[in-house]
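Quick one:
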Amino acid sequence: MFTTLLTIHSLIRWFVLTSLIFAIYRAYNGWITGKPFLKFDNTVRLITATIAHIQLGVGLCLYFISPIIDYFLHNYKVAVKIGGIRFFGMEHSLMMLIAIIIITIGSVKVKNKSKDKEKFRSMAIWFTVGLLVILISIPWPFSPLASRPYFRTF
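Output:
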């Protein structure tokens, strides 16, 4: 179960990144050019936030069944001093939760705006900040915090 969820979590990461980049592109393009906020843009906003929430749900499931997290929670005083374990036990989890909160706030703000330019501006700013937090918190293969492969297999 753990390996399957981990693989799914790794795969969904690419959907989150792709949808965020596309939504950010649409947002900046609409904001700069003064285009109308179309139904398509709203759908992109909604799908992006939904994919991020699905990833959060899978991540939370992983958090509660992960042997790394189990060790972290039961051996906190020792585990907090081990970078890779601390990264997944605290840093990755907290930063990703913050990123999803930022994306959610941005999505709600877009929904509540009345002017198209304000909608694009809100989506551009909030989604960009969320993306930056995610990019910092992913355990990339080149990361000094915790290194994981780009793609996991089942």
